[in-house]
Structures are given as structure tokens and as C-alpha cells.
């Protein structure tokens, strides 16, 4: 049954192929993103004037949130007296089409539509798990997504050499052009002599890695986000990305696009909310068991809530933002128990509360 599911997914990806000018135009060629590249530097490199660059940036707010990495490529055509660029933003699921010609400048932003292929990757742990996955598929995104599947429930620092793993991932194409990796669909990793498998299940406004055992977890808190993408773990000492000082990181950073909803992981009361220089917009909940949970860098403070308000489990209490000391949109989530900060990974389920019922039905049909 599981194999039929994957075959159906693959067939859907192939049948979902669409034809557009880019797909049919072989004059486009891929160009690698260089370290330090921005949209502006790419436009400058290909002859766009200062005035034209400013016009491109004014055309779409989404371009200001476009994060470029060295794993990505953009596509260039200089045929027929025109200079055309096509750039794919996987995080916002958008495609930016920029074209200049003697007749003027054109900028179009369209929803991304990809032909998707599914690839199986197998390997064994040699050194760190992250490096072992990267040796099989040269993508930090894919390696970190594999880690996301296990990192809340398992210690991934002490995996014995030779432990087998495999994963199924999406490769995305725009016409004949490979534009990047999509989601990791399935993972398997040997831990403690047992092969533990996780399936990525897409849900409205997100998706999570789970298996049947995860749904039986007795951990006290649900995930505060609908898409678990962990950018930084609880650490006693790390170098702060802005101050560059070595200091404790007493929480977990969940990375997500700006505006993504944040949910109460358990019922509670708003103990404090406000704004400060480091945390930006923040909310602190107090729960019946005396534990407090904190939410930093919110886009805005919730207008429908105030100090003393009671919230139910799964209630939206804010949106992902980048206020305070922040380099990219994320939620810094922290837990305080008996007056001291503790590792949230030991208290969290892998999914928000409102996913639970649907996940139980979906997991039951995977086998």
C-alpha cells in the first residue's frame, strides 16, 4: 500500500507538468547563486541599471523576502535582444520573471508550479548524521529536513557508525530545468537497533513528520507551529548570530515564512506580553502545571488578547515575525519550569493539537 502511495505521488508530479514560455524556451541556461548574492547583485551583474533595479524591487514586496542560498540556481536568457531572468523562491512558492528589452522592463510574479519526481536515497552513517546525508545528496536543506524528522524525540549526536538510513525526496523541475529540492517525503533511520520510519504528512497550513508511536506520546505540550523546521536547538553555549558573543540559547527556534500562525501548545493564561530590544514582540503563557512558555520575535502583538486572557490549546496567539534581535523570520520558543529554563525538545509533541485527529486517520492508512 505504501508503494502505491509513492507511485501515485510520482504519477501526480509527472502529470502535473505544465507548459509555459520558460519550459519551451531552450535559450534559458542555469546560473549558480554565488556566496553573498542578492537580487540586486544578480540584476547588476546582468546589466540592469540602478533605476531598473529599483523598479524591479518596487514591483513586488515578496522580492524583499527572497532568501538566496548557494544551493540555488537562477535562469538567464539573452536571446532576441532581450535579457530575461527567472528566479524561484521555494519558501514563498513563487517565481519571479524579470525581462528587459528595447521596449522597456517587465516584472511578473507567479505561483510556482513544478514537475515533481521522487528519488530514493540510501546510505550509512559515517561521522555525523548530517554529513552522512549530505554525502549522498549535496543539499543542506535535505539533510536538515531529515534531521527535523527525529530531532524532537531522539539524540542524533550518538548514532553508531554504520547505522543505515534512507529517505525519499522531491526533485522539482520547471519544464526541463531542475530548480531544486522540495520536501522530504519519507525517512528511515536505525536507532538503538530499531529502524524508525517517519512519513511527512501535508496538512492545511503546514505538515509534519510522524509515525504511529508519535501519536501516542504523553509529552505535555503540542508543537506551537504547524510546520516543524528547526533552525536552532537549546544550547548552553553558542555564538549569537547578531552580537557574535558566546551565550546560552535557552530555547528552540522554529523557522517559517513571515505570518505563519503560532499556536498555544497547551491551555493557559497570558502572564505577560509586550516588546523589548532583544525578544521583539513577545508573549508569555502560564500553564496549570506551573510551567511558563515564551514566544519571541512575533510579527505583531495579538490585538484580541491581553495580559490575564485565557487561551485554549491550539488557539492562535500570534504570527511568525522577525522583530528584536533577528536575522530571519522565526519563532524562539522557550520553557521555564520551577524557575529555570529547560530544553523544550523534551516536552514537545511533533505536531500542533489541531492536527492530531486528522493525523491519526492519515497514519492509519499508510501501512
Question: What's the short version?
Answer:
The chain is α+β, with helices and mostly antiparallel strands and 367 residues long.
Helix fraction bin: 10-25%
Radius of gyration: 22 Å
Strand content: 35-45%
Q: How many β strands by DSSP?
A: 22
Q: How would you spell out the order of helices and strands? A: HHEHHEEEEEHHEEEEEEEEEEEEEEEEH
Structural class: alpha+beta
The figure for the number of domains is: 3
Cα-to-Cα separation, first versus last residue: 6 Å
Q: What profile does the largest beta sheet have?
A: 8 strands, antiparallel
Number of helices: 7
- Shape descriptor reads globular
Spans of 5+ residues with little confidence (pLDDT < 50)? 1-19
CATH T-level fold name of the largest domain:
Nuclear Transport Factor 2, Chain: A
Give an overview of the whole structure.
Mean pLDDT is 89; it is low at 1-19. The protein has helices at residues 2-15, 21-24, 39-45, 50-59, 129-136, 140-150, 356-364; strands at residues 29-32, 73-77, 83-89, 94-101, 104-111, 115-124, 164-174, 177-191, 194-203, 206-210, 230-232, 235-239, 246-249, 252-255, 261-263, 268-276, 280-286, 292-298, 310-311, 316-319, 330-337, 340-342. 17% of the residues lie in helices and 39% in strands. Strands 11, 14, 16, 17, 18, 19, 21 and 22 form an eight-stranded antiparallel β-sheet that branches. The protein has a five-stranded antiparallel β-sheet with strand order 1-2-3-4-5, with helices on one face. Strands 6-7-8-9-10 form a five-stranded antiparallel β-sheet, sandwiched between helices. The longest helix has 14 residues, at 2-15. It has three domains: 1-17 and 114-217 and 353-367, Nuclear Transport Factor 2, Chain: A (Roll); 19-111; 220-348, Glucose Permease (Domain IIA) (Distorted Sandwich). The chain is built from seven helices and 22 strands. The protein has 367 residues and is an alpha+beta fold. Helix 5 (129-136) packs across helix 6 (140-150).
